[in-house]
Amino acid sequence: MADVAIPRAKPQMSEDNAWTQLKHNRNWLGFWFMVPAMAFLIFFLAYPLGLGIWLSFTDTRIGRVGHFVATENYEWLWDDSIFWLSVFNTLLYTFVASALKFAIGLYLALLLNENMPFKAMLRAMVLIPFIVPTVLSALAFWWIFDSQFSIISWSLKHLGVINQNINFLGDTTWARICVIFANIWRGVPFVAITLLAGLQTVSPSLYEAATLDGATRWQNFRFITYPLLTPIIAVVMTFSVLFTFTDFQLIWAMTRGGPVNATHLMATLSYQRAIIAGQLGEGAAISSAMIPFLLAAIMVSWFGLQRRKWQQGENND
Amino acid sequence: MTDLPASKVDLKAVISAPARVDNSEGMSYLQSVPRRMVTLYLPLAIIVVVLLFPFYWMALTSVKPDDQLLDLDRFNPFWTWNPTFKHFHKLLFESYYPYWLWNTMYVAVCATVLSIIASVLAAYAIVRLRYKGANLVGGLIFLAYLVPPSILFIPLATVVFQYGLFDSPLALILTYPTILIPFSTWLLMGYFKTIPFELEECALIDGASRWQILIKIVLPLAIPGLISAFIFCFTLCWNEFIYALTFLQSTSNKTVPVAIVNEFVDGDIYRWGSLMAGALAGSLPLVILYAFFVEHYVSAMTGAVKE
After folding, report:
1. CA–CA distance, B253 with A275 (Å, rounded to integer)
2. Is B271 buried (19+), middle (13-18) or exposed (0-12) by CB count in 10 A?
3. How far is CA B35 from the centre of its chain?
4. B261, A235: Cβ pair inside 8 Å?
């Protein structure tokens, strides 16, 4: 039986040898598995990213092909006080909102990590602001911060704190405070829930041991919780900074950059210049100007991840 | 730690504490009840009330009759005794709202399905086929995650126009995956890594092709991950604003977030009742979905960060 089976198998082997080998070749298979994802990312992400930088060096308008104008757009922006105001607004918005989001988020995570009744339900409720589309909750804030019928003004008036309605979105300082507040409101659940997931991996026995050794609650936090949480904090904050820096929809739904450009961020300004005014080249220059900041955020994330590997005692590869 | 407990009840807790594995009160017996009230329940209550108040306000406004909406002196603004569904009726029967809901749903489902298919293949190839340069590609996909729509919408608008996709839902269905694929690929990579190699080796020895392994072994085991990725992508699609605002023009083609901002705010007459009703109706589908899949949702969010 054996000498019949061998000649039969052999020609078959040599016949589809090349095809079988190809079918089992990791690189060949891997290539085909990657095609759909790569097609999307190359055509609609990498190509537009490059195109955006190219557009920023042209004078393209909507409906007209542009010509290369070197750095003219950037020179224009350099002398444009509204652009610099939007840069200032963006940095202020990002810095204040991210810092407060981190502080409140960490505090909320620590609170939620305690034992209490209805824990699961509370955690689920806390995340709701993150689920609801930003624009829709921004509209609710728009109504809450209405100049005449604001519920906050009404309550404060009845408590006797103020005599007149506060012009929340009409006054430059108040408008900035309001949009930052709305951003914090929306971002805190994300920070809190992700940090909570990190907190739950910290073994309770560490706290018990430290408490036996006489550590106070603050020392528990400072020398156990915080060091063990740094890697996840690095990643969460990178994302938080990134998404706050490039925020568009919250501002657009609440103020559209007003009053007198006080809440214009770089993203909203580029939309206004590029799509509404039709100056695609100039808008592209504004959004390209955001790239250096994004790179800085990515570097932070990168070093945060490096540190994590080192802390866990894994090999640095 | 000055208020160490002395009562018998606490002593019992100390003795029985090591026996319990999870859900034990841990070290919380070290704190007295009044102290817990001030340091835990009070701040928590304040934060939760602030986080949920806008939704209460949204819901209340959407059922208030018009005369109570703007008259804060005659009626207590925090409650209404005669709710009306007038605003919802108007929304559903006198506006394009049902179309907008349908558009949003259609775009979100199509974009999510496309992205999940692409991500499953990509994640499997990166984690298990380990072709040459897989790590590099994984890193690049992570970087793609960090490219925000705000810097892409201008060049994408020209691309969409060139391909003749302007003002068509297809423009969104094809561009949303750029936001979703990086995220879900990283999430699924994490799930695929937890599936033991041995299962695949057995299947390979039994003569299964890579495709059969993916469909019959890996995917059934990764169903929790697939659900997480699906829900999260769906929510991201629903939430997306800037692409929809830029690529769509005609009223009946818009998605809910864009339509509400542009079509419901006409001039100086703010139709707060129908505006809030629209915002509420646009949020409810997501909140209901979330209520059923809280755990998947949380694991999607934290999984993507941990990776």
Report:
1. 18
2. middle
3. 36
4. no
User: How many other C-beta atoms can be found within 10 angstroms of the C-beta atom of residue B130?
Assistant: 13
Per-block average pLDDT, block size 10, for chain A (317 residues)?
46 59 77 90 92 90 82 89 92 92 93 85 89 92 86 86 84 92 94 90 89 89 87 84 90 87 92 90 91 80 60 46
Task: From chain A, pick out residues whose CB is under 8 angstroms from the CB of B157.
Answer: 274-275, 280
Q: Where are the beta strands (DSSP E) in chain A?
A: none
Q: Which two tokens stand for residue A5?
A: 């089976």
Q: Provide the ipTM.
A: 0.84
Which residue of chain A is at minimal alpha-carbon distance from B41? A111
Which residues, other chains included, contact B83 with Cβ-Cβ below 8 Å and sequence gap of 6+?
A: B63, B64
Chain B residues lying within 8 Å of A235, measured CB to CB? 305-306
Contact between residue B262 and residue A154 where contact means Cβ atoms under 8 Å apart: no
**Dihedral sign from CA coordinates of A222, A225, A227, A229:** negative
Report the amino acid identity of residue B16. S
B249 touches chain A (CB under 8 A): no
Distances (CA, A) of B265 to A263, B104, B258, B274, B275: 20, 19, 11, 10, 8
Q: Is the Cα torsion angle B231, B153, B190, A108 positive or negative in sign?
A: negative
Residue whose C-alpha is closest to residue A67's, from A277, A288, A280, A256: A280
Query: In the prediction, which pLDDT does B269 show?
Result: 57
Minimum-distance CB partner of A34 among B125, B153, B302: B125
Q: Using CB atoms and an 8 Å cut-off, which of residues 104-123 of chain A contact chain B?
A: 104, 107-108, 111-112, 114-116, 120, 122-123
Question: Which burial class, exposed, middle or buried, applies to A67 when counting CB atoms under 10 A from its CB (0-12, 13-18, 19+)?
Answer: exposed
> If we measure between CA atoms, which residue out of B227, B193, B205, B209 comes closest to residue B300?
B227
